[in-house]
Amino acid sequence: MDHKQIAKLITLIENEPDRSRDILKKLPKRICPVIGFTGSPGVGKSTLIDQVIARLRSIGKTVAVVAVDPSSPFSQGAFLGDRVRMKKHFLDEGVFIRSMASRGALGGLNESIYDVVELLESVGFDYVLIETVGVGQAEIEVRYVADIVVLVLSPGFGDEMQLLKAGVMEIADIYVVNKSDLEGNDSLYDQLVGFLTFAGRDVSSVVKTTALNGNGVEELVDKVITLWKSLAETERLKQMRKERLKHHTETLARRTLQRYLSTVDSQDPYESVELALKSMCERLKYGQGGGT
Amino acid sequence: MKKYRILIAKPGLDGHDRGAKVVAHALRDAGFEVIYTGLRQTPEQIVKTAIQEDVDLIGLSILSGAHLQLSKKVIELMKKEGIGNIPVFVGGIIPPDDVPKLLEIGVVRVFGPGTPLSKIVQEVREVLEGVASTSGS
User: Fold this and answer.
1) Which of A69, A79, A95 to mutate: most B Cβ within 10 Å?
2) Residue A174: strand pairing partners
3) What is the tens place of the pLDDT at every residue in B1-19?
4) Can you tell me the ipTM of this complex?
């Protein structure tokens, strides 16, 4: 499938989610490593992904990237600027980059992400990379979509207190100290190692990188490859994919219910849900399908 | 739900993108999803981006004086790649004499210095809705 067809299908999945099922049903089921990159705004996620693409290409792998940026809660518009860092891959036929707006989703991604990732896996890419919006502390949906989560940190984002907070800090498989040419990177690294030791985690999951010049990127990619192999060799990957399916299902359920909720007119929130569920059940009973 | 996606691109060698960013910001605030390519893009890079991002409209920002050559190249390449149906508008330092030439090349709108943002937003909307109604989608 060429890039144009893939791009059109993504648009269709995003704009008319009801059609995703038919689109995906026609494609072969296929699994490839799905790697999520998350972290605060400005830590260098896009620049790091740019280098990771370069490394994966140098070992002959094809790569699809989905980069999510936030939609405005006021205008619903979005400024999608992650591609700017990935310019050198624009003409490479082995790289497909797609920007997505979050469209109201609060977990750092977009509701269509599950279907879009499945599509990119099906059409044969060797790697799918996901970049979340710049996250704070609680946007953890990437954990459910990606097989491996890379948390990108950089010096200058607060002291050790930030590492102790629940949420994003807990969901990563690999921790990157990016901008390791800047002052403060050593203490961030040491604190991170301390934090992981205390949590009983493997400290070899910490990598120092400088995305601007590519330092440390080879080591990061090696870690990703090793980790994915170990996931795929055990039952772990199967479990994770099961988990992904569960969250995909929940997202669909929420969207379906929301659609019925929007047709209900009641001042009582409890009654609204009851009415929505009732109209959904009635519609299903008459065989018109609930839709998703 | 249909959401319009607009590519704002900077072809050529000029290094000033304040204008492109201001227009992108205004379009964002008007509810569009705006993809920005960054500076110094070749026509090839812009066309590949337009394909992968499946955009509905392309805006080229050109301040270098090479607007005729660059716009022509982008539009030719778009046709070659089978996306000649996507409308293209141009903004930047465009001498009035060149406006008809750009329109002849196939550009749908030209916005020179001093164009109010509200006018750009309104005309962009008209172009997008015009395309949607003629293609029946």
Assistant:
1) A79
2) A150
3) 679 999 999 999 988 999 9
4) 0.92
